[in-house]
Amino acid sequence: MKTLLSHCTVMILLISMSCGTSKKTAEITDPNVGNWEIVVNDTPMGTINGVINIEKVDNNYVGKLISDSGAIELQNLQIISGNMSAYFDYEGSEFNLSGSIVGEEFNGEVSGMGYSFNTTGKKQVTSESSQ
Question: What is the pTM of this model?
Answer without folding.
Answer: 0.74
